[in-house]
Design goal:
The structure is a homodimer.
Chain A (H helix, E strand, L loop, with lengths): L6 H8 L3 H9 L6 H14 L5 H8 L4 E6 L5 H14 L5 E6 L4 H13 L4 E5 L5 H8 L4 E4 L9 E5 L1 H14 L5 E4 L6 H16 L9 E2 L5 H14 L5 E4 L2 H13 L9 E6 L12 E4 L2 H16 L7 E3 L2 E3 L9
Parallel strand pairs in A: 1-2, 1-3, 3-4, 4-5, 5-11, 6-7, 6-8, 8-9, 9-10
Antiparallel strand pairs in A: 10-12
Chain A binds a DNA duplex through helix 2 and helix 4.
Chain lengths: ~325, ~325
Amino acid sequence: MAKATTIQDIAKLAGVSKSTVSRVMNKTTAVHPEKAAAVIRAAEQLGFAPNQFARSLASGRSMTVGVITQNLGSPFYDAIAQGVIAGLQGTGYSPIFADGRWDHVVEEDSIRSLQGRRADGILLIGGQLRGTDLKALCGTLPRVTIARHLPSVQHCCIYVDNVQGGFLATQHLIRHGHTKIAFIGGPHHHSDAKDRLAGYRKALTQANIRFTTKLVLEGNFSSASGHAAVHTLLKSGEEFTAIFAANDATAYGARLALDQHGLRVPQDVSLVGYDNQAESAFMIPPLTTMHQPAHQMGQAAAAAVLEKIQGQPIKSRVFIPELRCRESVATRT
Amino acid sequence: MAKATTIQDIAKLAGVSKSTVSRVMNKTTAVHPEKAAAVIRAAEQLGFAPNQFARSLASGRSMTVGVITQNLGSPFYDAIAQGVIAGLQGTGYSPIFADGRWDHVVEEDSIRSLQGRRADGILLIGGQLRGTDLKALCGTLPRVTIARHLPSVQHCCIYVDNVQGGFLATQHLIRHGHTKIAFIGGPHHHSDAKDRLAGYRKALTQANIRFTTKLVLEGNFSSASGHAAVHTLLKSGEEFTAIFAANDATAYGARLALDQHGLRVPQDVSLVGYDNQAESAFMIPPLTTMHQPAHQMGQAAAAAVLEKIQGQPIKSRVFIPELRCRESVATRT
DNA sequence: TTGTAGGCGTTATCAA
DNA sequence: TTGATAACGCCTACAA
């Protein structure tokens, strides 16, 4: 680190004490306009950038909020992260990221590291840690969880209702006359995937359609898994006229596999995805999917943690995903 | 910020001085095993996380590298950012992000803020600032530019040869017998777009194909712009048998527009994209595109800036994009 | 309105 | 091998 200029240097150049410099930098007390001008001039001349470390050490606030992500790269989580950045913009707080990699050990380390950097608050995007562990780890540190629902009221969570999302997607298909609807899910242990499956089952039950395990395939939220699942499904010989994929990427893979088997979408098979990824509107045909207000959630979470830092009580908030009807669903005739 | 435990607390609990605590935390000097054990026990008991501010203030190193991004959300830049994160993993350095928003004013502020946080080095992903301004701003602060080529040897740049990329993509089309090749570019002022166009022209020239401005459309790297461009092209009546899109998103939009006009890919029109986005392999048909080693570039840049921080001299590095042949290109018969 | 002095939690330099 | 003690750069009473 190159030796940077300090308020001391400025004080000397401007012919005042460093307290005065501090005062004009922070506008904390009125100072004589002339001296203030001299300070500002000196600061510009020396290209002064206050040392945040010293500032935080002295003031006790870091003006940062720690953001724990889990492997960026998924459109949904990326959009949340962008929402967080946008929500922090202009508030004086900077986000500082740490990766939890969907691993509770790594996640714990990341939180520790953020605490070491004295983050004033923590935002968890997804994650694996149990609520009780989280609480033990963070103590009184303001904390908001995004895209994940921790049951206890003690936790502030900004999340989407995946059961409802799965329900709405399936219901849409049912309303178009489909009864043999396949579901390509995520990993069995993933709560989002489980919830969407629960919603699927709920819609089936409500419509008096028998649930068949043969129509439920396990995927991993990747296009490749959607592609493979359709092959498996076709080979199984189980009849189906529609597919509900647990996310858009899975739907893309499924769509390609269908095409390779000479099945048309939506004439032969209807398809619904989940996430409303940017690319989905330009698929062939444009994909009907569930939209999640990811960016908005990120912003809401940023605002929430800021309020909490200011000592205000905040509560959890659920978002309901919305159906985006496009052209991948046809009425079963 | 809740009152956290300090080495002083640990010192008291372990019955040693804080210097000793510091020593066992940093393994800087051997200490009596028994005392060391006591310190470690005390630290665990109190859930100690060293205050990075105090640490940095005292040591003069922040153990962070500032990363300037420009609007996350594009697959290419996201992949670079992930590469940077991966490259820093386990090095003891944490990335701290700031958004430049493709705006030189914002970018300058971001760099200033990073300097205030005393980053030990800076990584610029893309950006608008001129090389001389950058140099003036950063001074001796180790700095590496990614995905952008600054002419002077003074700058260390990790970038891809977009001219070559545009050339290879176009050449691929030419080799399949195409001579009427449309190009859907990016904004006129965007250097990546300009370079890819230059490569396109170079390939045409080399094959003795006349360049027609009517076949060059302006886009903005979005699917919507690709979609619109094809409409414009079709309406213009200009003949073409192939399209080279400046990125994959643009190609998706173009593909949909073609489909809506009853044109088949690749039988009627061949299509090549740029970026090798994850979704491209699952388009219908799977999209032939130029692959850029974005993740690898991010990692390389992280390694480079670390070396520079250690005082080693480093030099720029060019990556050459590679053609990924899939099924969206057919031989012109 | 201004300056002085103490403290924030570490690291680093001395002696011991 | 240890323990004082002086930085590190800034903020903030407190006093002038």
